[in-house]
Amino acid sequence: MAKRQIVDVDEEYLREVMAGGSVRSGKKEPVKEPEQQALPVQTDLPVKEEKEDVIQPIETIEAKETVRQIKKKREIMAYETLFLQRKASVPRRQTYICSSYYDKINSFLPVIARGLSITAYLDNILTHHLEQYRDDINEIYERKSQKPL
Fold first, then answer.
1. Which residue ranges make up each domain of the chain?
2. Higher pLDDT, residue 7 or 135
3. How crowded is residue 109: how many other Cβ atoms within 10 Å of its Cβ?
4. Considering the chain, what percentage of its residues have pLDDT values greater than 90?
5. Helix ranges, 44-98 (H)
6. How far apart are CA 28 and CA 23, in angstroms?
7. Type and span of the H or E element at 100
8. Residues 131/86, Cβ–Cβ less than 8 Å
């Protein structure tokens, strides 16, 4: 029986390529289709010539839309990674949230993250918030906790 070969996979690169990103140098470049030029529209009115740098080619507009779509997909993937992952169970304490927030979360969470509890979702949000604002929180805490002379 032959042993399986372990292959190192660059998952971030694969996601980028699948989202329509470019292929890195050293790899095979995708075959590009020949560019099609728009046919000029003929009218009876005299046409004023425009400078080339003023006209934005269709390819540029399409490229911008593709970049926006890729960024949006990456943002969604980042959101899923940050907030919609189950973590190991830890000791918990009871706390309360506004019932309107509970109802909103309860309406979408079972659809976007089946099996993830509201408690785990809120724990992920709080973890991210505390990591993101750690320095600000520490600075405010130090400022407020200093004893006056």
1. 58-86+95-149
2. 135
3. 18
4. 27
5. 58-83
6. 7
7. helix 99-112
8. no
